[in-house]
Amino acid sequence: MPGDLRDGRIVIVGASLAGLRAAETLREEGFTGSLTVVGDEPYPPYDRPPLSKQVLLGKVPADTTGLPMRRDPDADWRLGVRATGLDLFGKQAMLADGESLPFDRVLIATGTRARPWPNPEEASLDGVFTLRTRDEAGGLAERLAAGPGRVLVIGGGFTGSEIASACRERGLEVTVVERGPAPLVGALGGTLSKLAAVMHRNHGVDLRCGVMVTALRGDGNGRFTGADLSDGSRVDADVCVVALGAVRNVEWLAESGLAAGPRGIACDAGCRAFNMYGIVTDDVFVAGDVSRFPHPLFGYQMLSLEHWGNAVAQAEVAAHNMVNPGPLQRPHLSLPTFWSSQFGLNIKSVGVPTFSDQVVIAQGSLEARRLAMVYGYQGRVTAAVTVDMAKSLDYYKHLIETAAPFPPPPGAADRAIAADIPVPSDVPDPAGLSHGPTVALTGHLPDRRLTVVQPTG
Known about the structure:
With 457 residues, the protein is α/β, with parallel strands linked by helices. The protein is 19% helix and 30% strand.
């Protein structure tokens, strides 16, 4: 049986970070069969974090963000062609050019795309951008380099905040509009979002919270000129960046019978996809941003992550399990980790901050803008976020992994101090925000197409 698993045909749908790392790992694990990687963009896999940082600052061109290969995966690359369907009975992946790719096992790593502005006519105005792909980053960087009078950013999540930071570093006037009470509140909760709001304003950002953009305006010739807000005000701007979060690329799986929905494709801890009845498949695997998977440290709730490290770790687990029999398969149990650089601050996160009911500042202070905040849920540590204190993160990672009691004892790496009194974590309902969290507990999402199957006889 192990010999059979190391041969045959494997198709990876998604020429992404997860797709590339899975292809490399398959070869490292001894897979000798045919390997095909399908990608809807015409480029080999590239790195996304630099797009909202170095590329927007003009420090590196968008076309130099290609990911280095650890080894040549000896794959047949089908780039610039979209997957349009998956036939689980015929074991074929259908492509937009009419071709069908037969497979013995398939890995879905189609990731996410930027959520577009909901009005297509307004979204098509010259000067309105989203930021997810290499082409989008290149186009936006070019427009910022031209020196617009003002940039409007819709959404105060991590991407929106990094864009605003890049604009200010370039010396550009920028307005951020966020429906929620503060930037980053959906990802980090109320306490740290207060620091985020202060940093925006201290760096000259025109921050508007608790309001929404109701319409984007043009000059009659198709050029963006500004936006109307729900409080009756108007923002005049030359460039608009829509940073409303991500959409999982699952539409192509609508008729596949897999448990695929707006929050991703459900899979088990071994990255094996569930079908719509909750039965695990043996030949369909999922990795990266498009996955929803259970984690024992967070109540076995289904997690959706948009994190670089998760895409790598999950791809390696999926690839291992694709070519190893059941007893040798391993679970994907690594903790979510995330980092962001904005307004001169380095923000790092481990665990799931939204899986919390209380927080405590264990080190540093909001006033010093250097701190470690620890999150707890029902009396145990579930996450930690550091601001310019990254070396403490490993200590808190250990607390999360060992389900240590909350609030945590003193004893972090650089100094041992008694923690402050815990306060509510104040994580809002994402429905009231412009931005969503980059790590989310997706909870229960029933599929209304299900029919009850009655036993016969």
